[in-house]
TrEMBL record, chains A, B:
Annotated Pfam families: ACOX, ACOX_C_alpha1, Acyl-CoA_ox_N
Gene3D superfamilies: Acyl-CoA dehydrogenase/oxidase, N-terminal domain, Butyryl-CoA Dehydrogenase, subunit A, domain 2, Butyryl-CoA Dehydrogenase, subunit A, domain 3
Name of protein: Acyl-coenzyme A oxidase
InterPro entries in the record: ACOX_C_alpha1 (IPR055060), Acyl-CoA_ox_N (IPR029320), Acyl-CoA_Oxase/DH_mid-dom_sf (IPR046373), Acyl-CoA_oxidase (IPR012258), Acyl-CoA_oxidase_C (IPR002655), AcylCo_DH-like_C (IPR036250), AcylCoA_DH/ox_N_sf (IPR037069), AcylCoA_DH/oxidase_NM_dom_sf (IPR009100)
Highest taxon, organism lineage: Eukaryota
Coiled coil: none
Length: 668, 668
């Protein structure tokens, strides 16, 4: 048991001002009392393992040592999960709930070598494999008897999947596929755990059979021996090197030198190759979208959680830190008293909630549409695809920016790894880079929006997420009102106006160019329209959720949600003023009022701000920050973390005698 | 000699389109033919040392090994400089030109433990020490006989210098100062090289003499023994731990346990303490601004150079990388053909030039005003201070953002350390954190602007950098014209309008609050006004320089400068549309035209874009990037860098037998 903590008095003073019940907020944030309880149980159960307590932060280790320590920790956790199950605790999907969640985000600050195994390998087998194939591999994967990863990207091709070069050529004589990497650019590159950890991969390759090309298909390949872990014959494998973050994810490269695998190793739930080499095309090519879309929804949800960590750190530090007198007759204030500090942190708190709500809506939509697809109705898939693409882009970009704002809000100390910001940043930035290049994804959403606009022009009815385009067309949007609802309307008008403008330029260009060239040349405006569309979705989701909270929660909490909505909406409006002013009329007085309203909303929220971050319910063992710990003992923690540096274990480093002293002596 | 390189054919194709003489541009960029020649000579001379060639990138080392390797490299370079001097090459200030410049930016990717010695210790001695003190320490410092650093910031206080806690109490009996750190928060924290490298410090402490407090004063203290390098008596010293970047800078902490230093160790060029303890106040307290201002100007200049590296990498990679067909009948294009890629990279190229020009102007201003100050005229110091504050903020923020845009523009490969982006980012971000908290600096500039505005209201004449405020007041600004000049005018109007609005709110608040409280509450608007003022300075400096180039350079180069100015101005206008629309009238057609003009400027510049980054003249040995090397051999370099990872030197990592295999066996 942990002894009662001594809380920094400034922090306690702010906590005493909170007007709502934090536990009520936490239950909402985690989806209900049962989910919150389960999260806390798992955190305690897993993280209390003595083998996970370590005195030297991994950031001091060499790259190789970091990997070895990560594997050690993976196995400690897997054993802990075994123990939990042996003790009779029944928790569905427990491996994903632990290893695929924030619970281990401080154990694996730079990611885990099993993340892709947990998050994608099983899902790929489940969605792409036949029942027989699942019987052979899926259960062993879920029990961690085999470890795998999802291998698609190559050195020369990422987002443009059709350009992949690895080939899989069927040999009907031996009933095998021959998998081959013909060039340097065809080296598979990036999959997590691939380098030294997994022994199986689901790999995507260009299929050739009986001399014909049949597009990209998935295959399962064993890459390392069960007993020795040595690479199998023809397998060239290794890691891709150090990175901004993710240094314990063990991202790898893989090349095939005419590797033979049996016919049964093509994942044939959709398309099939028969023994004689005949190819049978999938009935429903869209089903392949499943894994990618689910991963994108997971990314959006993860962004809310990463940002929750960052704002918890910045908020608590800003309450403990005193600096720069406002009134020269008074002591230096808590820096959160400075409005310029509130301006940095409060909108980031609001963003956590907006993104969490959007992720929830996207999960629901995903479940609904997946069920529709199973019953043969594919009509809403494009809507889901369009939303998941732009949300992945906008949330990763905005969270990357907000994490940096939080870090800068902590002054010099934010630059220290012990603050925790850099590891959060590394994880967030990784998501900007993976699962589709952000601009390409925006242009995919834009294609959907342009199609929707052309339907508006034809007088057709649209799905709810783009209904506002019709309203714009019929002149129902455009008059400025300074409420969140008015901001939503103005943002919808700006988005619709931007789409209409891009559409016009596209049509003009189509007179002299092909549709593809015209689309490419209109890319800047199209990408902008997609970003705005995403902001409309985020704000409208948040409004929906806040209105709902007013019905279901206590009055005090309902008011906090209102405050959060106001901050979010005003900040969004001020950041998108250029776009809005282009399509909506404002007076000077309107603009002055908007700024005033924003500042008033910060002031109104201030007394509850510490309560909300406490309600994100991130224990110190998960937060892993000298600046953000619950007790606010910032300075002692900074000093104590520094003193643990291996360099500080010796008064004099050997480089003095080896290099410095001889030089000084020679230079007298 | 390096053999003639084989150049990637796509890259060569683009180089063949360049219309201007790259060497002419390079001469301008480095300040003249002599400076360019000297830079190239030093690069070759220093970096060709065989002891600087190493096969394992430092990012694979442990934190401790990184430091030891950095010290080894420091000494290799110092010996190389000795050799150069012994061979009779006469280069002024050669230590700073090598160790304080980009030449070593790939040798010390995360900074050098001597940066602060080179950049601040000598300057502090020169500007704060008496001639006798300089005779004792300065020459030894310049010859690297003693090594020092500049010690000001504490755990509990950074930007608010008056809040520092370390005390220096004069003891007239022994004619010594007693330096003491009374609290945890008084630990000195951050100085480069402090932890294990330097043996001297210039430390700032609260002076007490004869029971009276005399503010912050500088003292020189020896912290380590010459022979053993052990900490001196009463010195508690160590490093502050791992960071986002700067991991080889050896940033340290320092506490004093009643350390005694002789009277002569107070740096007494300004204020003095006599033997009897009498305090003589400095005639000119502003002289202390010198070191800090010079460091800020160096930061601005450094930002241009860091961004030059980032755009060189992104531009060359975008020329080599082919991805995503535009016209489905044609092969995948170079990604620089996509306008959305041009939108990311070309404005960043323009920003390098705008920031470099602004730094030049600031250096000139610094020299002029320093000369004026020496002759007793302090009138323009506030102007210099205001500009150096906001330029430090805006250039570090903008370059941090642009480096990330460049990194994202390189897709997944940008996330690899071998791309070079992360080390650039770490160095840039460090500058966002150090030398003054960015918002506090903006508010210092704002104080100057508010004062200027009140002078306008009184009908007074202003200095050139804020003259546009008078023009705004008399209604001469505000009509939109789509040229760079028109954009400058609109931006000036937006800035003046923002200042006037902040002034109005400030005055209103002063009716019910003290001026300090009112100022604090108006912080958000004040900070925004400062940022805009800085953008006015950047754009007007660039315009001045481009107009000058038209007179002095070839027609072809003059046109390139014009193209760069257009891209810079249009991009700036689009990014600040919200501010401009608030104070300047635009029609819908104006806005549509602005977007069109921006896109046209990208298209016009495209054929010269590779020429400009080649003209930044950054050799591969300085660039240190797999993606940005001159020959464009991107994929082989990525693979070859990966293969050098220590993890890839073994087929099977020991963690398999230690952890993975026993777990799998136990789990059958």
């Amino acid at each position: 048991m942990v002894a009662a903590q001594k809380i920094n008095k400034d922090l306690q003073e702010e906590r005493d001002k909170v007007t709502f019940v934090i536990e009520e907020f936490a239950k909402w944030f985690y989806g209900g009392p049962r989910q919150l309880h389960e999260k806390r149980f798992l955190e305690n159960y897993i993280l209390s393992d003595p083998d996970l307590q370590s005195d030297v932060d991994p950031s001091y280790l060499s790259h190789k040592e970091k990997y070895e320590e990560a594997i050690r920790r993976v196995v400690v956790i897997l054993k802990r999960i075994d123990k939990l199950q042996a003790e009779g605790h029944k928790i569905d999907n427990v491996h994903k709930k632990v290893l695929g969640s924030m619970i281990v985000s401080n154990v694996f600050k730079e990611g885990s070598p099993l993340t892709t195994h947990i998050g994608m390998f099983g899902q790929a087998l489940a969605s792409l494999g036949t029942p027989e194939q699942q019987a052979e591999w899926l259960d062993r994967a879920l029990r961690c008897r085999i470890w795998g990863t999802y291998v698609q990207t190559e050195l020369g091709h990422g987002t443009f999947v059709r350009g992949l070069e690895v080939t899989s050529t069927y040999d009907p004589k031996t009933k095998e596929f021959v998998i081959n990497s013909p060039t340097t650019t065809s080296y598979k590159w990036w999959p997590g755990g691939l380098a030294h950890t997994v022994n199986h991969v689901v790999v995507f390759a260009q299929l050739y059979s009986l001399g014909k090309h049949h597009g990209i298909q998935p295959f399962i390949v064993q890459v390392r021996d069960f007993e020795t872990h040595k690479p199998m014959k023809g397998i060239i494998i290794g890691e891709i090197g150090t990175k901004v973050g993710f240094n314990t994810v063990n991202n790898g490269f893989l090349a095939f030198d005419n590797v033979r695998i049996p016919l049964k190793n093509m994942l044939m739930r959709n398309s099939q190759v028969l023994e004689n080499g005949e190819f049978i095309k999938s009935q429903s090519p869209v089903l392949n979208y499943g894994v990618m879309t689910e991963v994108r929804v997971d990314i959006v949800n993860g962004m809310a959680q990463h940002l929750a960590k960052a704002v918890t750190i910045a908020m608590r530090y800003s309450t403990v830190r005193r600096q720069s007198p406002i009134d020269p007759k008074l002591p230096e204030p808590k820096i959160i008293e400075h409005v310029t500090q509130q301006m940095k942190i409060f909108p980031a708190i609001a963003k956590v909630i907006a993104i969490k709500v959007a992720a929830d809506k996207l999960y629901n939509l995903y479940d609904e549409i997946t069920a529709e697809v199973k019953s043969g109705n594919l009509s809403r898939l494009p809507d889901l695809h369009a939303l998941s693409c732009c949300l992945k882009v906008v949330t990763t970009n905005e969270v990357a920016q907000s994490v940096q704002i939080c870090r800068l809000a902590c002054g010099g100390h934010g630059f220290l790894n012990s603050s925790g910001f850099h590891d959060i940043y590394g994880n967030v930035v990784a998501a900007q880079h993976y699962e589709g290049e952000n601009t390409v994804l925006l242009l995919q959403t834009a294609r959907y929006l342009i199609k929707a606009w052309s339907q508006v022009l034809q007088g057709k009815k649209l799905t709810p997420s783009v209904e506002y385009l019709s309203a714009y067309k019929s002149g129902q949007l455009g008059k400025w009102k300074g409420s969140p609802n008015g901001i939503l309307t103005a943002l919808q008008a700006a988005t619709a106006g931007q789409i209409a403008l891009a559409y016009k330029h596209l049509e003009e260009r189509k007179k002299t160019s092909s549709v593809e060239v015209a689309t490419s040349q209109t890319g800047i405006e199209l990408a902008k329209a997609s970003e705005l569309h995403c902001q409309v979705f985020l704000l409208s989701s948040l409004m929906w959720s806040v209105n709902r909270a007013a019905k279901y929660f206590s009055k005090a909490l309902g008011e906090v949600f209102q405050d959060i909505l106001h901050i979010y909406a005003y900040d969004l409006a001020l950041r998108n003023l250029g776009s809005m002013l282009q399509f909506v009329s404002f007076s000077s007085a309107d603009l002055e009022q908007l700024q005033m309203d924003f500042e008033a909303s910060l002031k109104k929220f201030k007394n509850n701000s510490i309560g909300v971050v406490d309600g994100f319910d991130i224990p110190d063992s998960v937060l892993g920050s000298t600046l953000g710990a619950y007790d606010g003992d910032v300075y002692e923690r900074l000093l104590s973390a520094a003193k643990k540096s291996p360099l500080n274990q010796e008064d004099v480093n050997k480089s003095f005698d080896l290099y410095l002293k001889p030089f000084i002596k020679s230079n007298l």
